[in-house]
Design a protein that fits this description.
Blueprint lengths: L1 E4 L5 H14 L6 H13 L4 E8 L2 E13 L4 E11 L8 H15 L4 E4 L6 H9 L17
Helix pairs in contact: 1-2
Length: 148
């Protein structure tokens, strides 16, 4: 089991995995936009990093971390933007392997805070993140999103 840094030649595999991930929640996926987004990360590693999760040589999932400067944390902040493990490979440690890879990258980049969003009714994901040290920081706040 491995989380290896993805390369440009992995884009089609990553888009296929992303399509599986989105299908689980009945979200549509614009495959061309997804290709472009992955390519943006490969072209500018300061924006983020992508790992391909594998069991042997078989693609089993992926994780994406993105980076931004945060005034609140007085330095770089990161976000686990996507983490997906194929259903047949869940509960065997790949999620933990993915989070460990992201944490290692964050330490190397001296990231001050790592964030993740997950559904409160997704028990396995919540347990994975809590085991890795994530805590609810809402404190009366909510994340709002706009797409300009």
């Amino acid at each position: 089991m491995e989380a290896r840094i993805a390369q440009a030649h992995d884009v089609e595999t990553l888009v296929d995995l992303m399509a599986e991930f989105y299908a689980e929640s009945n979200y549509p996926l614009d495959r061309d936009a997804a290709r472009s987004a992955f390519q943006s990360l490969f072209n500018d590693p300061s924006l983020g990093r992508v790992w391909l999760l594998t069991l042997g040589y078989e693609p089993a999932g992926y994780v994406v971390a993105t980076f931004v400067f945060s005034m609140e944390f007085c330095g770089c902040s990161a976000f686990v933007d996507d983490l997906f493990v194929r259903p047949q490979h869940r509960m065997c440690g790949l999620g933990s392997t993915a989070i460990e890879a992201v944490m290692r990258e964050c330490r190397d980049r001296q990231v001050k805070a790592l964030h993740v969003e997950c559904s409160t009714d997704d028990g396995p994901a919540v347990r994975l993140y809590r085991r890795a040290g994530f805590r609810d920081q809402k404190q009366g706040r909510q994340v709002l999103t706009a797409c300009p």
